[in-house]
Amino acid sequence: MAELRVALVAKRSGAFITGFRSLPQCEIVAVCDPDPAMRQTLGDRAHVPDSGRFADYEDLLERARPDVVVIASPMPFHVPQAIQALDLGVHVLSEVTAAVDLEQCRQLVQAVRRSHAQYMMAENYCYRKPMVLVRALAERGLFGRCYFAEGEYIHDMKHRHHEPDGSLTWRAAWQVGQRGCTYGTHSLAPALECFGPEARVATVSCVGSGMHTDPEHPHDDTVLMLCQLNTGGLIKVRLDMMSNRPHNLTYYSLQGTKGGYEAPRGFGDDHKIWLGENVHPQPLTASAPEWRSLWDYAEDYLPAIWRDPPEEAVRAGHGGGDYFIVHDFVQAVLKGQRPPIDVYRAMDYTVPGLISEQSINQGGVPLPVPDLRDLAQDARHW
Ligand SMILES: NC(=O)c1ccc[n+]([C@@H]2O[C@H](COP(=O)([O-])OP(=O)(O)OC[C@H]3O[C@@H](n4cnc5c(N)ncnc54)[C@H](O)[C@@H]3O)[C@@H](O)[C@H]2O)c1
Fold first, then answer.
1. What pTM was estimated for this model as a whole?
2. Is the CB–ligand 1 distance for residue 16 below 6 Å?
3. Nearest residue CA, atom 37 of ligand 1?
4. Averaged in consecutive runs of 10 residues, what is the pLDDT profile of the chain (382 residues)?
5. Topology given in CATH for the domain delimited by 126-306
6. Cβ(9) to ligand 1 under 6 A?
7. Which residues, other chains included, contact 31 with Cβ-Cβ below 8 Å and sequence gap of 6+?
8. Domain layout of the chain by residue ranges
9. If you measure from the C-alpha of residue 354 to the centroid of ligand 1, how many angstroms do you get, rounded to a whole number?
């Protein structure tokens, strides 16, 4: 019998099936979705028999008794479902964002602290090949001291804001139902990691473009969140789920004292990098510096996971992110080690967006971002 009995919760958790199937220590034993059609699709994809298919989450925990749950329900359910699992000693891999308000954050941190089980947030964008390589170069110091980065998530989601009967979906309520950077972790997390494991957002300032395309929703078409880091750097996050335009793959840039990186914008553009004298030891000539392809540095610096990945990893969703994140999570669970995106890192990625909702409503005033590591064991507030 497999060491870890895995339960998948809600449709999107199907994205992780390939990752779990590739690990002999894991067996997917149950699925859960209240929607019968979604439940059937998920169950069929995961090869789970009818007895392992549940409409109700508590029913799943009680009857399937999994070791691991993958929570991919709508955002407001992540924390309550994670806490229920953690209190039963069940390991949690949770979709983004980790939580929808600061009280949920506090509850989640407390639950992780009192549980013997592991919690990891599934920020899959941290595992995409280009940013894995950029981060590796940053960790080697090849950009010098990093002081600026950008992350952009520009994805027209208007078609996901109403049910076929016209009623509002959870996305309408929780992603575009208020102002602020409500879905910022895909943009912030990979950029933040380039500044090192100690870097976190210290203050947030958030402004918006106003509501133009779909004023039914009280959410700016474009939201800008400026994140001042405790290490002195700045990250600019753009969130746009409204504007009329094709979806761009998430854009990032990074600037340090010795070099810079820019993701492609499309139409044959490549990932561009310039590392100055770090890789050209000879003094710069009079000619102007020129961008090179990021992939010129892959042979020397690309981390192991992306060197010779199995075909199924490359084909897995979100540029392989949905595959590799499962491997890191399962390894942490099996070895009893801290997962790479533990609850505190999940808070580092999530809390700035929650604070941005306050900042934008106060005209963009910079507001401090609490560090949940400082939360006293029995504190009600920080
Ligand atoms: N990391 C990524 O790249 C990525 C991509 C898409 C979505 N997401 C996240 O995944 C989650 C789901 O997004 P989606 O696009 O699949 O939403 P969706 O609205 O398309 O689907 C939500 C599913 O959850 C089910 N559900 C509703 N309430 C539930 C409950 N209480 N318990 C279990 N299942 C429940 C619904 O029946 C539905 O099948 C969100 O948190 C979203 O932020 C992450």
1. 0.95
2. no
3. 35
4. 94 96 97 98 98 98 98 98 98 98 97 97 96 98 97 96 96 97 98 98 98 96 98 97 90 97 91 77 63 95 93 82 95 96 98 98 98 73 38
5. Dihydrodipicolinate Reductase; domain 2 (3.30.360)
6. yes
7. 7, 8, 9, 13, 39, 42, 43, 46, 48, 52, 53, 54
8. 126-306
9. 19
